[in-house]
Amino acid sequence: MKVVISGGGMVGMTLGRLLQMRGMEPVIIERMPAGAYIPRGYMLGFQGYPPLEEIGVLDGVRKQGWDIAPRPDGSAVAVCVEVGKLLSALAEGLPIVHEHVVSDLVRDAGGRVVGVVATSDDGSTTTYDADLVVACDGVGSRVRGMAGLEVKIEPLAEASLTWMSPEPGGVSFAMSYLTDGSHIGTLGWPQGSAGWRTCEKVGEEAALAPGLDAIKEMWIRLLPESEKGISALTSLDQVQYREPQLLSAPEWWRPGVLIIGDSAHFFGPETGVSSGLGLGDAHALAEAIRQNPDDADAACRSYVTWRAPVIRPYEAMDPGRQRMVLAGGQQARPEERWPPGE
Ligand SMILES: Cc1cc2nc3c(=O)[nH]c(=O)nc-3n(C[C@H](O)[C@H](O)[C@H](O)COP(=O)(O)OP(=O)(O)OC[C@H]3O[C@@H](n4cnc5c(N)ncnc54)[C@H](O)[C@@H]3O)c2cc1C
Fold first, then answer.
1. What does the pLDDT look like over 68-90, one tens digit per residue?
2. What are the DSSP E strand ranges found in 213-325?
3. Domain identity same for 251 and 239
C-alpha cells in the first residue's frame, strides 16, 4: 500500500517508523526544516509507551528525562522529558520530505483521494500518488479540511496560565486540585521546569496584570513543589495565558484519507494524554495496514474499530468538560482565585 503521511511531528514520525518496520516505505511530508521545533518539557504518558518500545526509542528517551510516579516493577506512569529528545530519536533513519506543505488532495473521477500535492518554499509542486493519505498535521490540519471531515471545537469554560523556566524543578510532577475542582501543577525535567493552572477567562492583559512577583507568590503558596522552578523566572514573557479548546471529529476517514493524532482529537491540558493517544493511533493504524495490505478502506475500518473504544471515552469524559457541567457548583476559595478578587 502506498501511504503518504502529511506532517512529520511525533505522530507522523511514529507512524512512519512503524510502517518501515512492517516493510513499507511511506512518504512523509513536513512543512518545517529538519530538526526545527520549539523546546519545552513534555509529559510522555504510559499510553504512548508500546509504539515507542517497538521502535526501540523508549528506554533512551526515558533515560534523558525524569520518571513520573515510578513503580516498584521499575516502570513509571509517565516520563517528563525535553520534547526534542523524543523528536530526534524518532527522526533517526527516517526519510522525510522537509520544507514542503501538503497543499492539495488529488481525487479520481469517483471522488476518492488518490494522492497529494506538496508545495515547497519556492512554490514548486510535486504530486505523490497514494492508496492512503494519513493526516498527522496537527490541530489545524489542512488535510482534514480538504477531505471534508468536520470537527467539533469546544472552548473550555476556564482559561489556563502557564510558565516555563530554565531551572530544573525540584520534582518531575506535582499537581493539586483547588476547591472548585480546577487544578494547579508543575513539571520538571533535567533542563527546565514548567507550571500550569486553571484561571478565570479574563483575557491575557487582566490575567497577567498582577505581575510576576504576585504570580510567583500565588504558585508557591498553592503548590510549594513549584518553588525551585518558578523562582527562576525573570520576566512576564515566560508566563502565558491561553484559552484551551477541545477538538473532536465525529468521523475519522473518507475513502483514501484518514486523520490521526492531534488532527483527529485534542484533549484538555489536565488529561496529559493528547500525545500518548496519538502515538497509540499510529500503532493501531500500522497494524491495521499490515493486516489489510491491499485494501486501504478495510484498514481504515479496522482502525476505527480498534481506536473508537479507546479515544471516544476520553473525549466524553475530559475533566475540563465535566467542570463545565458543574460550573456554578462549588466556588473557589478567594485565596485560590486568579486573578485575585475575580
Ligand atoms: C504547549 C503544549 C504543551 C503540551 N504538553 C503535552 C504534554 O505534556 N503531554 C502530552 O501528551 N501532550 C502534550 N501536548 C500535546 C502534544 O504536543 C500533541 O498531542 C502532539 O504533539 C501531537 O502530535 P501530532 O504529530 O499529532 O501533531 P503535531 O505535533 O502538531 O505535529 C504536526 C506536524 O505537521 C506539520 N504540518 C502541519 N500542516 C502541514 C501541512 N499542510 N503539510 C506538511 N506538514 C504539516 C507541522 O509542522 C508539525 O510538525 C502539548 C501541546 C502544547 C501545545
1. 999 999 999 999 999 999 999 99
2. 239-242, 245-248, 253-254, 257-259, 265-266
3. no
The string of pLDDT tens digits covering residues 249-284 is 999 999 999 999 999 999 987 788 999 999 999 999
Decide if 279 is inside a domain: yes
Residue whose CA lies nearest to ligand 1 atom number 1: 40
Can you give the residue range of the structural domain that contains 225? 157-243
Q: 56 and 44: one domain?
A: yes
pTM above 0.90, yes or no: yes
Question: Of the residues 52, 105, 137, 259, which should be mutated to test ligand 1's pocket, given the most ligand atoms within 8 Å of the CB?
Answer: 137
Kindly state whether residue 169 falls inside one of the protein's structural domains: yes
Cβ-contact 29, 116 below 8 angstroms: yes
Q: What is the rounded CA–CA span in Å between residue 342 and residue 329?
A: 16
Nearest CA to ligand 1 atom 39: 137
Same domain, 15 and 132: yes
